[in-house]
Amino acid sequence: MKPRPVETDAGVPSGGRWNLWLGGGTLVLVALCLFVWFPRDISSGFLKKSLTGNTIPGDAFFPVLLVMLMVPLALLLIVGALRAGQGGGEAVGRVSLQNLLFLLYASLATGGALVLMALGGPLVVWVSNGMGLSDFTSYRAASGTFPYNVSGFFLGGTALSACYIYITRRRLRGRDLLVSALSTALLILIFAGLLDNIQLPPNADL
Amino acid sequence: MDILLQYLALGISSVFTAADGSLWLMPVAMVLIGVVIGILVGATPGLSGPFAMAIALPVLVSIFGYGNEALYPVLGCLLGIMKGATVGGAVPAILFNTPGTPDAFLTTVDGYPLAQKGQGRRAIQTAHFASVVGDNFSDLVLFIAAPVLAVAVERVLGLPEKSALIILSLCFMAAVVGKAPLKGLIGGLLGMFVSLVGTTMSWDGPRMTLGIPELGGGLPLTSCVLGVLVLSEVLIAVEDMRKDRIHASGPVQTPEMGPKLSWVERWRMMPAILRGASIGTMIGALPGIGTTTAATLSHDTARRRSKTPEAFGNGAIEGVVATESANSAVSGANLIPVMSLGIPGNFAAVFIILAVETIGDFAFGPQVFRFTPIKEIEGFDTIMNRDLVMAFGLFTMMVIANICNWSVGSFLMGQLGRLIHIPKDVMLPVILTVSLTAAYVQDGGYVGLLSACAFAVIGYFLRRLGVSILPFVIGFLLAPTLEGLIRGSFTASGGDPLFLLKSPIAVVMLALSIWLLVRMFRQSRASLKA
Fold first, then answer.
1. DSSP class of residue B20?
2. Which positions in chain B touch A205 (Cβ < 8 Å)?
3. Complex ipTM value
4. Which residues of A touch B164 (CB under 8 A)?
5. Domain ranges within chain B, ordered by starting residue
6. A17-38: pLDDT as tens digits
7. Are B224 and B452 in contact (CB under 8 A)?
8. CA B413 vs CA A49, B87, B92, B459: distances in Å
């Protein structure tokens, strides 16, 4: 990671049509909210009458004010970009196809590790039952027993760290796997060993 | 005066006393642990105080729970991390030209040349001394300014004025953070917008849940902030390292450390330290302006006032003094708007507020500093402002953290050179796993974990497009307060559509907000043309 200040965004490149896209996207979001989302998903409207007959704000009052405030800002963004011509307007970065590809990798790595986390426990129980080491009827029955209750988290957590190390370094060494496994084991020790009433993934969702 | 001393005594004793009246040293221990963690985190390039606070908060809540008694240990640890990190960041900046935290970015300018000249120990001890004195100075200002400001706000501002003040703060933050104020403000509004999902104030059922029943209780606050702040930063860093093929491994050799800093030298530094601390405190008290601005301004001031300005940038000890005293003074002053108004001004303050909102029934804001007379009613209870006792308890823990920084920090800073060798390309993936686990544990399941992932993607796009994260996060946190104030103002005005424009103070604040935006927008366009 390059050292850079957290609270500032120094070095943000300018230009591109991203200001237009962002301004336009904001206006579309506002229109969707006002005409589609809010009417269907907020029950009490913009204003309502209280039991005493006074006019009081409904649940849509503040959300409508918020999105309405976005309109002039989005218009200023668009006008600024159009006036300055191609590559002008307020400073803006960009999201390239490579960035989207990276997000896809990251999503696959995270999703795969979470699936392993969810299925790892039942898999270990199934193997253990098959080998005659246990006779649990399901993972739920084993989810209070060590090490079955943390086996899925151990496998998934190790895979998650290892996948991201691989994405970062473009290679994976034996010691990277070891660090991933040890750090996950440390998390298990802290959350499942030292603390009470804490459920590691996926046990809180069984 | 008597009542002030009474509350002060109660605040100090509350830190050391359990609910049953027995001696309780857990808050003090947690402050110490926090300072040590903070110094270690600060000295590790790629990590920062807010990073560690984000991960520590869910873990601490898991350990201590949600009751009022959990507030001191949790806040003590977070305050310790915040203060420790400001000190530790200077070590790798001086020894290896790699700032441990963004705060120490400017310390490299003079610190690294000093280390190259064989004066590494002197530079590190100077950084520690300037940093701790600067931090103590700003804490003193906080202890005086926060109650005074809060009392003034409570007397002068009503519901419309408080609403306008939050709007002004958000505009100010959007205008000063980053180079894209319009997008910063849109980000702030977007942050407010997403925080409205689920929760309502009229009890007419959930809103904006898209039919997902799990969102009925609102989005999980800590997981969302963890996602947008920490996970998105990890994603950006991972991608940058992948793209640049940086296989992070630290420098092999630690430079010659050289002689110690004498007490006479320390004494001579005091005027420069106090000047840097004053600049840092003034900058820190304004929401949104960070440590980098304070350090830059202080370094520049010191250079202009120096008899040997040419030495700056080539290993001037005054340069280290200026940057470290200023950047550390920001941390205490940042809590002035937090404690007096409930408005966070930087990421560290965000986690202090998050902790307070998650645990117990204490809340920051002007109401904290009401000096209610203490009356004991026989057979019932003692009437007092318990929030004020809590506030003085927090001040006490800050003093304890400063003492830890003086003593433990001084010892630790000489030993931290090795942390540069921790490879970031291994550390950051592990942090990602820890963060997702913390999100799951804190918010009770996949709702927390998936919210963190979704907000990580939002944060990723915001960062890549150069939109500041800070207004988004602060908007996310302040939305419920602002909604309550706006609804209250509207109702109190009898349904007047111009309810915010009835008060001259509110009008001035709103006009200032618009002026700020127009000015910043023009400035950003002018700088682009230049």
1. T
2. 445-446
3. 0.89
4. none
5. 2-529
6. 888 899 999 999 999 999 999 9
7. yes
8. 63, 8, 10, 33
